[in-house]
Specification:
Elements lengths: L6 H16 L3 E7 L9 H6 L5 E6 L6 H12 L4 E5 L7 H12 L10 E6 L6 H9 L18 E5 L2 E5 L11 H10 L9 H15 L1 H8 L11 H11 L11 H13 L11 H13 L1
Parallel strand pairs: 1-2, 1-4, 2-3, 4-6
Antiparallel strand pairs: 5-6
Helix pairs in contact: 4-5, 6-7, 7-8, 7-9, 7-10, 9-10
Bound molecules: guanosine-5'-diphosphate.
Protein name: Ribosome biogenesis GTPase A
Main location: cytoplasm
Subcellular location: Cytoplasm
Amino acid sequence: MAIQWYPGHMNKAKKAIAERIKSVDMVIEVLDARLPASSANPLLAKLAADKPKLKILNKQDLADPERTVLWLTDYRAQPHTNVLALDASEKQAASKIIAACRSLVPNRHGLDRPLRVLICGIPNVGKSTLINGMLGKRSAKTGNEPGITKAEQRLILADDFWLYDTPGMLWPKIIVEEAGYNLAASGAVGRNALDEETVALELLDYLRRHYLSLLQLRYQADLSESPHWRDDNWLEWIGKKRGALLSGGRIDYQKAAERVLTDFRDGLIGRITLETPNQWAVWLKKGQMQ
Ligand code: GDP
């Protein structure tokens, strides 16, 4: 699969994150609730193995609520892990996060110093929105500690709560094929990484198998004639329905693919989650066998 890879950035970020992790009490990992496992970075799991973790399933307003419960249960079973499902724009987001952090690291061996938290997430998961929400009216007070660059801000949310933004970019790491497609569908990997028609066809294939009624409702497809539409039938139908046409009435597949992807990203097809803990386990196993 032709995913673009950025080893240079990756190594720099890895070093900086590894360095910062040493001096924090805990780590917040922001995930996309529609693709929790695909939007996680296994590198972070390794680097922060011995730190308490708060996982935030962000964009829960776009995710399938039943599947969010499955992920919450799955993560809660992990040691030293707390988990929250959130919509970054909700008013209580910041106070929920701060409370969850405090409960995860309730007493730091009597140490009289602020709780220091590193927040990480791959691009587009909503990390900035969450940070801005946590800052609220407080202006971003950045630290003057040596070694803290502009790219790695220390935000003082309360006298006893310091939040460090990740130094550098935490790029997604694609460990199974499905994760690549899910990341592309969510918009987390750049437009050029994967061809949009392929991504849309993969998405339609998943939706057809798991969210058929939502698909049917959104695009008003009459399935009575052929209940087993193939994915390209769907793309063709959507092209027709959504006016993605070329001269002579031919379908503009590229445009139809873009429409499907924007509809998904904007939540217009419905609340959808592209993976469950069980599905992810199967994909991982399959990936390891190849
Ligand atoms: P970052 O790259 O992780 O810092 O992501 P941003 O904070 O810039 O958010 C990326 C996009 O997702 C923006 O368009 C946000 O408005 C949107 N976004 C962030 N959080 C949420 C959320 O909880 N729900 C929804 N629907 N959109 C969100």
